[in-house]
Every structure is written in C-alpha cells, then in structure tokens.
Amino acid sequence: MKAVKRVLVVGSGIGGATAAYAMRKAGLDVHCIDIKPETSMAGSGICLLNNTMRALETLGLGKACLEVGMPFSLFREFDSSGQLMRSHPAPPSCGIRRAALACILESAAIEAGAVLEKNLSITDLSDTGHSVEVKFSDGREASYDVVVAADGVYSKLRQKVFGEEFGTKFAGQSVWRFNARLPAEVDGFCLFRAPSGKTLGIFPTSPETCYMFYLENSANPLRIPEGEAHLIIRERLAEFDAPIVRKALDEITGPEQVIFRPLDITLVPEPWHRGRVVLLGDAAHAPTPHMTSGGGMAIEDALVLADCLGGSESVEEALGDYSKRRFTRVKTIYDASLQLCLNEQEDALANKDKSAALLMQTYQYLAQPI
C-alpha cells in the first residue's frame, strides 16, 4: 500500500508548481499554497537548458514552453560596441518569460486536479511521525502525509524545521535584470564584454522579447535607493555603447522595469528531509545564476520527488532516496556556478577561457540522465 496519499506543497513557484503537477500525475492528492495573493505577471526571463527541457518533455510540458518561448542553440560574444567577436553552437535551450512559464506550470497543476490556493500560509505545523498536522493563516487545519517546502531561498519552513544554520550567504555579486524588445542580432545566448571586465548577458524569451542581465561585484550586499533602479542601471552600463544595449536602456522609464537583488546562496547537506517535511528547489539549493540552472534543478527535483513518492511504501525511504538521487548532481551545478561567480570577481577577462571551459564541462554533465 502506498505510504503517501496526500501532500501539501508550500510555494507555487517553478519548483512548487512543477511538483504539484508531477505528483498529481503520480496519483497523489495535492494541495499547493502560496503566500503571495496572485501570480506576478511582471518579472524577468529564464533560460531552460536542454536538461530542463528534457524534464519538461517527460512531464508533457515541453511543447507548451516552446510555443510561447524562444528556442536557440547559438552562443555569441560581442565587445561593448556591438562588434561580434565569436560565435559557435551551444546546447539547445529555450528562453521564456518567467510569467509565461508560471502560467504553464500552474495551469497544468490545476488541470491535473491539484488544489492551488494563493494568499495562504502556514502558521504552525506538527510532525506526529504518522502525519503532518498543519494550521493555516485563514484558521483552517488539515493533515498531510508529506509537506514539501518549495518556498524559495529564504524558506521559512526550512528555518522552522531545519534551523538557522542552513540559512543563506552572500556570493559577492548582485544581479540587475530587465526585459526589452528582441533585436535581430540576439538569436542565441549573447554576452557583451566591456574593456573593464563588465559583462552584459542577453537571450531571447519570445519572438518579440529578450531578457538582459548584468552581474555586479561587491564585498557586501548592495542596497539600491528606492525608486532609482532605472537610473542607476544606466550608470552601471554606461560603457556599453552597442546600439541594441542603448536602445534597450532607452525603453526603461521606471524603477518597476528593473529587478535588482543580491545573490544569496545556500546548499543544504543531505538528507533534505526532517521527518515528513522535505525541501525542494531553492529551499534546498540556491546557486548563483551563472549556469542558468536554478529553475532547471527545481524542475528536476519535482520530477524525482514525484517518482520517489508515487509508489513507495515507506515515507522515510522515499524521501531518503530523493535526496540521494539529487544531491551529487545539484552540488556539481552549485559548485560550478559559484566558481564562475568567483572567476568574475577575481578577473573576468583573465579568467574568460577558464570559465568557458568550466561552462562546457558542466553542460556536458547536465546532459547526463537524472
């Protein structure tokens, strides 16, 4: 007899929504909640690498992502004026707006029969050893066989169940993100390098849009004055005079168009469960974005966790197997991402070839089955 029938997923982001869908497909009764009142239609883009698309295709969601996103398989490198320096094939990927991906994942979960509720959080939970008794912010109480903490890098559930020692640390960089109209020159993953070592990344997220990002070094987390992000990003990218960059910056007229955050990272040692509460995605492992794999790792987590829980007769064995199947792979990506981050902080130009070799080595690793 199945040991798990009813699951609560806390967090309806990329990992949580995918988990809700995957577990419903595995025959489990799924309740998914999110503290936010609604799914944001703003936000940046995400690059779904080949391994992520493979996982989504396994779930039957790959085609939907390709239809609204933008597939590409090229890497191009430009100087700060927009002159092409090199171009070569890259592993097949799909750029997509985060809001579009969220819509695909949440809709799939709901259509599969998962109950998805927004503006709802946990006020208390108790693991009895046979179930997890949960109290919600609206006063309701319910019982579950397993609770999945998919509530992000600053997971409150992780803090409550695992303790403060598994919190985050600053990686030495912050990221600036914004969207723009898609220029004809951006037909793959593009990097623009300035003489100072600054690097601006761009990739398409739909036939009409692209996503731009810039990573900034600092010894301590940066704090940006409220309402000034759209002005400061112009200063940060002043030495990039490539026409497509200047045009994109001209389209930024308000602070709401720019997303800025310090890169806080964490990697929780295995096992990723305490009793019947288990971590997933950024709650368990939040890497720097240099391998563009944070969301992809969460999607793979969801696929593996659903497989482990779907037919298991033991909760402890299922959750233990999940950690064992995921930890080495996740740590490899976490370590590579952090090393790329450190290479940029040390000397981005001097370490360019070393970083490119590490990227290709890790892409090859990602191609391995999960």
Question: Characteristics of this structure?
Answer:
alpha/beta, Monooxygenase, 370 residues, oxidoreductase, single chain, nine-stranded mixed sheet, FAD/NAD-bd_sf, 2 domains, D-Amino Acid Oxidase, Chain A, domain 2, six-stranded mixed sheet, FAD binding, globular, FAD/NAD(P)-binding domain
Describe the structure.
- The chain is of the alpha/beta class.
- It folds into two domains: 6-68 and 97-169 and 265-366, FAD/NAD(P)-binding domain (3-Layer(bba) Sandwich), CATH 3.50.50.60; 170-262, D-Amino Acid Oxidase, Chain A, domain 2 (2-Layer Sandwich), CATH 3.30.9.30.
- The protein is 35% helix and 29% strand.
- α1 packs parallel to α8 and α9 (315-347) runs antiparallel to α10 (352-366).
- The longest helix has 33 residues, at 315-347.
- It starts with 5 loop residues before the first strand and ends with a helix.
- The relative contact order is 0.17.
